[in-house]
Amino acid sequence: MSAQPAPRPSAERRASNLQKRVSVLPKPTSIILDPSVLIAQHAQLTGTHPITIGPNTVLHPHTKISSVQAPVVIGEGVVVYEKAKIGVGIGADTESESRRSSIAPAAGSRDSMRGDGTVLGPNVVVESKAIVEAAEIGEGSVIEIDVVVGKGCVIGKFCTISACCVLPPNTTVPDFTVVYSGSQRRIDRTIQSRPELQQAKMLMHAKQIEIFKKLIPNNVAKWT
Q1: pLDDT at residue 54 in the model
Q2: Sorting pLDDT into bands at 50, 70 and 90, what band is 134?
Q3: Which GO molecular function entries does the Swiss-Prot or TrEMBL record give (predicted)?
């Protein structure tokens, strides 16, 4: 005689287990979302402080926005790619934390925090697997793949932090700066001196957001 299959747990028990798993994640005290925000499935918004997300922002699958230690403000037209993490303290349990703490503060570091929380300015791009605990990132800046931006950093507008770079806590990066090869810096004179290129870059960015809205199912209803 064949063995009888094991009985399935009751619906009540399954619901109880699911509730326990969900309750592990802290809920933000408030989430302020513009109606045009796109939040993909499996993106996470957690914490105990407010999270504010502006118009036409795109959060790709498996992004993590954490307000556990301080508020997060994400400006208009920001794009956060897969597995990127935003928020003060969100990198504390990663291998990158040990890398960051072993590096002396770079030139231009600040002695004090600009303020609590993380603010991403308009049209910022945070690429896959980047960790951003910065106090502020200026308009049009790009944080590339696997970058770590430490707590309290202030990055100016139209900057590029190249792939795998690590910015120690409280570092200041002036407008139009490109950080590359770990800690090397240069000023992008072309985009600095030609406002029409800045406008063209933002126009292409806006078109890309429109494409994302057509391709990525929007799960924003979960958070409203």
Answers
A1: 97
A2: very high
A3: dynein complex binding
What residues make up the domain containing 73? Answer: 31-90+116-222
- Cα 149 to Cα 26, 67, 133, 146, 167: the distances in Å are 24, 16, 6, 10, 5
- Residue 45's beta-bridge partner residues? 65
Mean of pLDDT values over 68-76: 95
Pairing of strands 72-74, 51-53: parallel
Please tell me the total number of residues recorded for the chain in this structure. 224
Would 162 be classed as within a structural domain?
A: yes
**H or E element that contains 202:** helix 195-215
Q: Cβ(136)–Cβ(155) under 8 Å? A: yes
The most distant pair of C-alpha atoms in the chain lies apart, rounded to whole Å, by: 83
Tokens describing residue 189: 């004179």
Structure tokens at 149: 């931006």
- The confidence score (pLDDT) of residue 5 equals 57
Residues 6+ apart with CB under 8 A from 161: 141, 142, 143, 144, 147, 149, 155, 167, 173, 179
CATH number at residue 187: 2.160.10.10
